[in-house]
Amino acid sequence: MPELPEVETVVRSIAPLVGRRIASAEFRCLRILRGGNPDAMAARLQGRKIAGVKRYGKFIVISLTGGGYLVVHLGMTGKLLLGGEAGKHTHAILTLDRGVLLYDDSRQFGSIEFSEEFPKRVARLGPEPLEVSFDDFAAALKRRKTRIKSLLLNQTFVRGVGNIYADEALFRAGIHPQAMASRIRADRARRLYDGIAAVLTEAIAAGGSSISDYVDAEGRKGFFQISHRVYQRAGEPCLTCKTPIRRVIVTQRSSHFCPKCQKR
After folding, report:
1. Of 127, 253, 259, 260, which one is the catalytic site residue?
2. Rounded CA separation 59/75 (Å)
3. Is residue 253 annotated as a catalytic residue, yes or no?
4. Could you tell me the domains of the chain?
5. Residues 58-72 pLDDT 10s
6. Which candidate among 122, 150, 179, 188 keeps its CA 20 to 30 Å from the CA of 113?
7. Rounded to an integer, what is the distance from CA 133 to the centroid of its chain?
């Protein structure tokens, strides 16, 4: 699933759409729509201009002039693409006064929603990991009696971190994915806070991680996957100590870590 760096990269690649007018909209798949019928949603979008494009966690929020928000979640395989021809996996088409924006999704786990008010499910998300203060982050850790890997995946704790970047940040902090969040000392909490910021910033600069079919709106792949230190490297030597990377299941998700470098 695209995580914060991938979604941020997509948002930046569609930023030039600000100011464009939606001439027409077509929705071809009911499964990806939330709370609306395709014809009604198309009618509400027609004629509106795009006022802004922002990322909130893993959500893409397109604000429209006169009020209203078009919210996109890419799910597992969703893509927003500028230009090109619609294909068999194209489930939404926004024809603009100049150009077209397509939504492709082969597995149909993503979603598109329109609402006049800012969506509650987005508003309920936790703080932005690149903006939250260390004091607030550390205090929130102390309140949570759960495994740290599970907590990092909880979007009400911080928004946008997923499996890839949780594993990578925990490695940089030297923290085992099964460590209890409430027991992490202040110095280790600081390393984790810094590790999250560093890995997300570096991944954004690299255009994200193209593990499977992720691309930005121009069809370009990211290349941060070549910098992964533990994610999907089970059995390979740790880049720091040469100990084989291990894989465990935490909250039904694979977690990759170095048993020597990362302590509980």
Report:
1. 253
2. 10
3. yes
4. 4-123 (3.20.190.10), 134-257 (1.10.8.50)
5. 999 999 999 999 999
6. 150
7. 20
Cα(239)–Cα(207) distance, integer angstroms: 23
Find the catalytic residue in 58, 79, 172, 246: 58
Q: pTM for this structure? A: 0.96
Amino acid at 160: G
Out of 2, 5, 129, 177, the active site residue is 2
Q: In the annotation, is 2 catalytic?
A: yes
CB proximity list for 36: less than 8 A, separation 6 or greater: 113, 114
Q: In this structure, are strands 33-34 and 111-115 parallel, antiparallel, or unpaired?
A: parallel
Tell me the C-alpha distance between 263 and 179, whole Å.
8
**Cα 143 from Cα 136, distance rounded (Å):** 11
Whether 59 and 41 have beta carbons less than 8 Å apart is answered as: no
Residue with tokens 């786990």, as numbered in its chain: 109
pLDDT at 36 over 80: no
Given a contact cutoff of 8 angstroms between Cβ atoms, the answer to whether 217 and 202 are in contact is no
Measure the CA–CA gap between 187 and 191, rounded to whole angstroms.
6
Cβ neighbours for 39, distance < 8 A, ≥ 6 positions apart:
none
Residue 8 designated active-site = no
Query: How large is the angle between the packed helices 186-205 and 163-173, nearest 10 degrees?
Result: 130
For residue 68, the tally of other CB atoms under 10 A from its CB is: 17
C-alpha–C-alpha distance, residues 201 and 57, integer Å: 14
Query: Quick one: which of 231, 205, 222 has its CA closest to 79?
Result: 222
pLDDT at 213: 81
